[in-house]
Amino acid sequence: MAVTLLDSRVSPFGMRVRIALEEKGVKYEYSEQDLRNKGHMLLEMNPVYKKVPVLIHNGKPICESLIVVQYIDEVWNNKSPLLPSDPYQRAQSRF
Ligand SMILES: N[C@@H](CCC(=O)N[C@@H](CS)C(=O)NCC(=O)O)C(=O)O
């Protein structure tokens, strides 16, 4: 399964996604983006907000860091759940 992350090292939103990928042990290609001169790939993959991070999984983009983290948790669900199983604790974590 091909995974690419369009990101910027200084982005705290990207950091969220990088931590989730590391926790899950997902191998991915990292693609640093110049946010002052946005490239074709970023504009094509996130035409709505034109922001990083964008996760590209098997050619399909997922945008917005919290949505990406939830996606990672759902797809790679065989290890390291990112949220507690208890609904209340999960709500607290999300808060
Ligand atoms: N709500 C977005 C925020 C992402 C965001 O603000 N990314 C910044 C980098 S930290 C960005 O791409 N900025 C470029 C711009 O605003 O044009 C998320 O959670 O992913």
Describe the structure concisely.
The protein has one domain (3-94): 3-Layer(aba) Sandwich (Glutaredoxin), CATH 3.40.30.
Q: Any idea what the CATH architecture is?
A: 3-Layer(aba) Sandwich
What's the CATH H-level homologous superfamily? Glutaredoxin
CATH class: Alpha Beta
**Pattern of helices and strands:** EHEHEEHH
Mean pLDDT: 97
What's the shape? Answer: globular
In terms of quaternary structure, the protein is single chain
Bound molecules: glutathione
Q: For the terminal residues, how far apart are their CA atoms?
A: 31 Å
Percentage of residues in strands: 15-25%
CATH topology: Glutaredoxin
Number of domains: 1
C-alpha Rg (nearest Å):
14 Å
Number of strand elements: 4
Q: Give a quick account of the main beta sheet: strands, pairing sense, barrel closure.
A: 4 strands, mixed
State the low-pLDDT regions, or none: none
